[in-house]
Structures are given as C-alpha cells and as structure tokens.
Amino acid sequence: MRLSVTTAGFMVSAVTAAAIGVVLLGAAGHEAPSAGATAQVAAMPVPVAPVVRRTVPVYLDYIGTTEAIRTVTLQAQVTGYLAKRGAPDGTDVKQGELLYQIDPRDYQAALSQVKAQAQHDAAAHDYARVSQHRNSMLSNDGWVAKDTLDQTTSNFHQSEATLAADAAAIQTAELKLGYTEIRAPFAGRLGKSLVHEGTLINAAGTQFNTLVELDPIYATFNPSETELAAIMRSRSKGPLSVDVQASDDAQQRFSGALSFLDNVVDRSTGTIIARATISNPDHTLLPGQFVHVRVHIADQPDALLVPQVALGSGQLGRFVYVVSNDGKAEQRIVSPGATYGSLIVIDKGVNEGDRIIVGNLQKISVGVPVQPEPAKDGAT
Length: 380
What we know:
Helix content: 25-40%
Structural class: alpha+beta
Number of helices: 4
Mean pLDDT: 85
Radius of gyration: 46 Å
C-alpha cells in the first residue's frame, strides 16, 4: 500500500497529539492526590503546661563534708584489770552512761584506809583541843608553865593540819575510785573498742575507744571569694539557713544554719572555710561523708518557671516548644536557671502564660500543627 505525503503527515500529527494528551493526563492525575494529602494532615495532641510566675529562693550550692562537733578518745587514769564493758561497739550512748569498769577493789580499800586514818587523827585532834584549853586556863592561874601551854597549843594546831591532810587524802582516794568508771562525757556513738575484759590497764593513757557526737553535726564547705560578699550581706540581715542532702535521695535532707566563716581566704584556692551546724536527730549523717550543701542567701521575685521535662537540647542550646497563636509548635531558645523540684527557672525566652509542650517531644518539630491538652501529671 502506498501512502501520500499528505496522509503521512496527518498520521504523525495524530500520534503526537495523543502522546501530549497522555502526558497531560498523567501530570494532572499526579497533582490531585498531593493537594488532598495536605488537606488531611491532623493536629497532634500534646500535653501543655503554662509558664508560671513565682517568688523563688536563691541558693548557692557546694560539695562539703560532715564533721563531728566533739570527738574524744576515752583513756585510763588508773591502773587495774578491766572488769566489764558497759556498751557494745558502735552503739549510741547517753551522757553519763557507764562505758568501761576497771576493777575498783584496790581503790575502795585505799579509800577505806584513809578514812580510818582520818578518824584516828580526828580523835587525836579532840584530845589536843581539850588539852590546850585546859592548860590555857591553868596557865592563867599559874598552875602550868608557859612552855607546857605552848607545847599543847602546838599539838592542837598540828592536829588541825593533820585533819586537813586527811581530807585531801580522802578526796584523792575518791577520785581514783571514780576513775575506775569511764562514763560518756556527752551523748554520742562509740567506735571500735581497743580493750576487752581481763586486759591489764596501764594508767599512762591506755586508750579504750573513741566517742563522737552526732547530733548536731557540722557540714564544712568552701565558698569562693567572689561569693563571699553575697554571703556576708545576707548574713548581716539574720541567720542563713542551710540545707544538706547526703545522697541523690531527696528524702534525706537536713536543715541547719551557717555558724562559722573563717577569717582568712586561702590564696592557693581562692576559697574560704565555712561551716553549718546541722540537726541530725536520727544520726543518719556520719562524720566524713560527702554532702550537697545549699545556702539560702535571698529570694527572687517574679521568676518564670517551666517543667524540667519540657527542656530540650540542640546545636543552638537549650530550648522548649511553645504552642503558637496559630496552633503550631514553635521552638524557643531559653536560658535555664536554678531548679525547684520538678520546675526550673527560665531567665529569658518565655513569657508568663505561654503554653509549654511537656510531652510527645520526640514526635514534634517546628511548624507541626498541635492540639494542646492539659498536662496530666500536674507539672506546675
């Protein structure tokens, strides 16, 4: 079959037109679903909490150590065998409680001896007194020589001195007898005993044990010289309260007051020694522990706080997500401050009343439509 030039051109034009139509229909069919998908994006429900304004305390935080207010080494003052121990190792004892007992029999016998000697000398003193009085009267009448009166008067005064020496000997014997009992000079906790029943105690300072006072207890820390002015200024207005935390357990908190500031700054460290007296009624704190020390120096009014769980971190710093007026997630770069329980102070970046997103933070991004819901955990 033979085609003319005119017929061939018509066929080429028809094929081209059909191809263009297919392309246009394909393009139109591709664009229509995209527009429909945009219209179907739903807002993500997110829990929110408002920024709140409060007056919050201002603290200075340190790492410190605990120290016993009083620590004594229990030592012997007399010689003898240890008869018994009044308290086991490591127990809490009361003031005046018997801790150790040295065999007292030798010292009881010595006391009885000096008391008997005192009675003997008291009888001699009575005779010397009566004799001196009688000779004094007879001497006035000329019946006794002056020398005899002087002798009886001397005997009388000597007997008085003997009674005084006896009183001192009795006191010494009573002290030595008392030293056979080692009692607690104050309430505290015993350490490990260095002697046991049957040990021969040497009077030259044999050590029995150590006793430390646990309530109250010191918390010692080192403020820098740059913080010293603020501490001194606040201290001039009244006692500075101090909180101590022994571990990461928030339940183990103890309170007290700043009781000592050293009178010199250490040049090598630029710090000063400070000490707080802390109440420790349950004896939970022990000397030598590391503790977190927080000193309350002032109150900051009108502080803006948000829940700590809302904070995120990025290349530009810390941020929070805020629900914008058009219902989308908006990122705010913030400057966080001190923490107060579940809340944290924000120095800049948010305003009072802003709705802070506190949940689903991994699922949202800037500009995503969100549906605010009240936070269920009472973040504020």
